[in-house]
Amino acid sequence: MEKQALTLQNILHDLRIVSKQNKNRRIPGLLCTMILFAIFTVLTLVFLPIPLLVLVFLVLTAYYAVRCLRERKDYSDEAQVLRAALDRANISISIEKFSHVEKEILYEPHSVYHEGTKYPAKFFYFSSGNTWRVPEIFRFYTWSKTHYLTFEGLQNISLAGDEFFYISLQGSPDISFIYPCKLFTLTKELEQATAEAVGE
């Protein structure tokens, strides 16, 4: 199969997907809990008007509302920085040798509960020690008419020792994407930018 040239626009498209997914992991738990306590407050007020119980639910609703607003503000500040970095195309490109894929159970620290939320996530591991967390999307490289893949497809074509372009947003290593060198090549502009970065 002929290799497809990987453009900056293709890369930014994929990095934006990862950035959006990172945001979506953070806020829903707090928002759901705030809404739940608000509903408890209204139901208690209507069906069981015990002032102390209503007060407890109001305090809990306010507490989670404040936490949710803080998370939103923090994310908004981070999103502005990320948007600026994406607009300037501040990316780092390296070539990594594939090692293996592993599924891990992750702990989500932004959960509303002290014990947090645990859920499975898939990672691509590379010989250098770098890892890439697989985004929760059905297909990768959807901008390509011929080289799009599902996670299973990408895993099936990846053999130990295969080389990948590992591309991340500078200053935000959790926003990254990988591209198998057997399917993609860099455009001349990206090759030149990578060579200049290495020369510095």
**Tally of helical runs:** 5
- The average pLDDT score comes to 81
Poorly predicted runs of 5 or more residues: 110-115
Report the sheet with the most strands, covering strand number, pairing sense and barrel closure. Answer: 5 strands, antiparallel
From the alpha-carbon coordinates, what is the Rg to the nearest angstrom? 22 Å
Helix content: 40-55%
Assess the beta-strand content as a share of residues. 25-35%
Walk across the major sheet and give the strand order: 4-3-2-5-6
The termini sit apart by 35 Å
Kindly name the structural category.
alpha+beta
Number-wise, the strands total 7
Shape: elongated
- Output the helix-strand order: EHHHEEEHEEEH
How would you explain this protein's 3D organization?
With 200 residues, the protein is α+β, with helices and mostly antiparallel strands. Helix content is 47%, strand content 26%. It has five helices and seven strands, in the order βαααβββαβββα. The protein has helices at 8-24, 28-47, 51-88, 151-157, 188-199; strands at residues 4-6, 91-108, 117-126, 131-133, 163-169, 172-180, 184-186. The protein has a five-stranded antiparallel sheet. Strand 5 and strand 6 (172-180) form a beta hairpin. It is elongated and about 70 Å long. It starts with a strand and ends with a helix. The model is unreliable at 110-115 (pLDDT under 50).
